Protein: DUF4198 domain-containing protein
Organism: Uabimicrobium amorphum
Amino acid sequence: MSKLPIIFLLCCSALHAHTFWLQPSSFTPVKNEVVKMKIQIGHVKEPIEYTRNPYHIRRFLLHHNKKSVPVVGFAGRSPAGFFRVREQGSHTISYESFTSLSSMTKEKFAKYLAEEAFVSVEIPQKDMIHEHYLRCAKAIVQVGKEEQYTPCKVGMPIELICETNPQHGKDSLNVQLLYKNKPLPNNNLRIVSLDDYAEKVVKTTKEGRAVLQLTPGKWLISSIVIEKHTATPNVDFDSFWASLTFTIPK
């Protein structure tokens, strides 16, 4: 095995227990503009730019009008990708990682559950906790106006979907959380302003939905599912991380 994948896994172990999201150079580009897509990881107030790693990317795509094309970029560089928007309307960028392995002490794992995951699970009585994790991030950019908005469902293992267009500027925004292509009820959604870093946590309904009252500005929604791992000896948990970024106009 080459050294690069091993280094990658070790680096991710230090950073994995933080939010991971897509940050376009513009959420409202003009037609034919080149959009640069940063990947951010860490605390929203002090994020770290995550460089493009081919060993990590399973799918990195731009979706528009039921068509999907790869988001290109250069390995080891940030921004991690870029694309040119050639048509008017809503465009969704999706990023799905391969599964990676993280190891941390029992104490750090408990802190991560409380501060990042907002969930409670029974932690094994052992010094080190080993976890498989997978990330599924999305961002919505809007070029001009459109007459009809179609929610973009990509089919990732965990996925947040905007059922109403954030650019419509309505009083509420409807979102749905899917896990393994099914609505996920009673799961926490973390809502964070990327402008002033105010945040709150809401739970999804039995249909996996939430109606959000958001002010104009840039927003990040994230959600996490953590389950006990049973397939591989010495691996304790599987975690699935979803995020969605967008802007609401003034």
Remarks:
- Residues 3-248 form one domain.
- Confidence is low (pLDDT under 50) at residues 1-16.
- The chain has two helices and 17 strands.
- Helices lie at 3-15, 106-117.
